TrEMBL record:
This is GAF domain-containing protein. It comes from the Bacteria. Keywords: Kinase, Transcription, Transcription regulation, Transferase. InterPro entries: ANTAR, CheY-like_superfamily, GAF, GAF-like_dom_sf, GAF_ANTAR, WH-like_DNA-bd_sf. Gene3D superfamilies: 3.30.450.40, Winged helix-like DNA-binding domain superfamily/Winged helix DNA-binding domain. Residues 144-205 form the ANTAR domain. GO terms for molecular function: kinase activity; RNA binding. Pfam families: ANTAR, GAF_2.
Length: 211
């Protein structure tokens, strides 16, 4: 059921929102969850969260902590905080009442990581079973996210094709030329104005449809 909910999402954003909600229900010990992107240089950007506690925790991360939880994920698929009150550098989490954290890599390349982090209010909340379930769940999230990204790109490509087709038709009517000449005119204008073809097409269609 959880896998089906993930794979039925239509956009990356909806996949992320569904993933953090399911993480709390599926991962043993999890009370809150968030998904963030971490870039080289320790810049972190929150993408989805179950509540404002998580959003606040991740937005306050500066990358200067002595034992950055997310820093470990450049070299390992899993990283964990057992007790934020005992571990140096995690005063932000402790202040928010988040004692435990379990982070799992979803995507990784040389420049950025996409990370799912589950949080709990008691120390030592995540055991081996939680890690096992978390890794299995994160694999499903990764697949669902990739699928949603491909669907979004295909939808955008189809929309772009339709826009260019409409703009070409408008130029054919205005200038009394065939489709090939109209498309070439569109391409030349795009290059001349240094504007993406789809943006120029959108502008032409918008102007044509405006009374």
């Amino acid at each position: 059921m959880a896998s089906q909910q993930l794979h039925e999402t239509l956009t990356p954003h909806s996949a992320l929102r569904t993933a953090v909600r399911l993480a709390v229900h599926l991962m043993p010990g999890a009370e809150h969850a968030g998904i963030s992107v971490i870039e080289r240089g320790n810049k972190l950007r929150a993408l989805a969260w179950t509540d404002e506690v998580v959003r606040s925790a991740e937005s306050r991360y500066t990358g200067r902590e002595q034992h950055g939880l997310w820093d470990q994920l450049w070299n390992s698929p899993v990283a964990q905080i057992t007790d934020s009150e005992a571990d140096d550098g995690w005063d932000v989490l402790a202040a928010l009442g988040l004692r435990s954290a379990l982070s799992l890599r979803l995507r990784a390349d040389r420049r950025r990581l996409t990370v799912l982090t589950a949080y709990a209010r008691k120390p030592g909340a995540f055991d081996e079973e939680a890690t096992r379930v978390g890794r299995l769940f994160s694999a499903h999230v990764s697949i669902a996210l990739d699928s949603a990204t491909v669907r979004e790109q295909l939808t955008e490509a189809m929309h772009t094709r339709d826009l260019i087709g409409q703009a070409t038709g408008i130029l054919m009517e205005r200038q009394g030329i065939d489709a090939s000449a109209a498309f070439e005119s569109l391409v030349r204008a795009s290059q001349r104005e240094n504007v993406k073809l789809r943006d120029l097409a959108r502008r032409i269609v918008g102007a044509h449809n405006t009374p």
